Amino acid sequence: MRPPGFWAAGADHPAARCLAPLGAAYGALVSRRMDRPGVAAGCPVVCLGNFTLGGAGKTPAALAVAALLADLGRAPAFLSRGYGGRMAGPVQVDPEQHTAAEVGDEPLLLARRAPAVVSRDRPAGAALCRSLGADAVVMDDGLQNPTLAKDLSLAVVDGPAGLGNGLPFPAGPLRAPLARQWPHVSGLIVVGDGAAGDVLAREAERRGLPVYRARLVRDGDALAGRRCLAFAGIGRPEKFFATLAEAGAEVAGTRAFPDHHPYRERDLAALAAEARRLGADLVTTEKDAVRLPPDRAAGIRVLRVRLVLDDAEALRRQLRRALGGGP
């Protein structure tokens, strides 16, 4: 879905006020569910989630955490619900065989770095991770899913966007009231600079939680100086467009699609025609690229980014403690 504009317009917006009773009911249900005890996985579980619907940088954060776990001598595997895919799992993701329509786009990205499992039944998915040789599970999303016990839960927040109007869905982007979510969080990762992220960082510190500042860094500058038509179907496409401009590309036009949008021939034909009219290259994100038909992907450039922590050692120490390895 594409976030409605009123989510960023304040809690007093008429649409937000009208939907507030529904949001209160939805938030209460999710809150009660979060409080349920989960099943032990038999190995440490590190969850990368967020307070809100939509993108905050969970997948790049999951990749960064998996790299830190590998530095600590662990063999991590990723566990995902596989949002947008039709396979219920549990199944190991094979990037050479599976498509985004089958397993979702994010698991395809994760599987390029370590074993990745898609499973709507999280305990069953964790069991498959262990059978594949994993001694640590990295959950991409799942902060609000109580079925699997977590040893460490890190909430990922987009610094510029924050929590929007601070109301539960559908009145706002929150999955549950923030006060009910904090007790389930072990630390906060703030991606990018912004006043909204600073407010959350101060609240986390007040609660005695560690705050990790991070940023998305592009890999290489191959797009510098190129004229581009940028398109994306992610949580915050405007962030991608800005990153592309910062990379030195001439952004001649932009097209935003809903998050996890399944690209169809008519979408790509229209984009190709617009690119020809503008005399521009088509450019998208890695997450969008895995949703493209193979015969179309070859002519589209991809901007790759990775998450860099300002203090990776501090997070490594917290991971070591969660793994039972001391201070």
Automatic annotation (TrEMBL):
It is an enzyme of class 2 (transferase). GO terms for cellular component: plasma membrane. GO terms for molecular function: ATP binding; lipid-A 4'-kinase activity. Its EC number is 2.7.1.130. Coiled coil: none annotated. Pathway: Glycolipid biosynthesis; lipid IV(A) biosynthesis; lipid IV(A) from (3R)-3-hydroxytetradecanoyl-[acyl-carrier-protein] and UDP-N-acetyl-alpha-D-glucosamine: step 6/6. Keywords: ATP-binding, Kinase, Lipid A biosynthesis, Lipid biosynthesis, Lipid metabolism, Nucleotide-binding, Transferase. GO terms for biological process: lipid A biosynthetic process; lipopolysaccharide core region biosynthetic process. It catalyses: a lipid A disaccharide + ATP = a lipid IVA + ADP + H(+). ATP binds at residues 52-59. NCBIfam families: lpxK. Belongs to the LpxK family. Transfers the gamma-phosphate of ATP to the 4'-position of a tetraacyldisaccharide 1-phosphate intermediate (termed DS-1-P) to form tetraacyldisaccharide 1,4'-bis-phosphate (lipid IVA). This is Tetraacyldisaccharide 4'-kinase. The gene is lpxK.
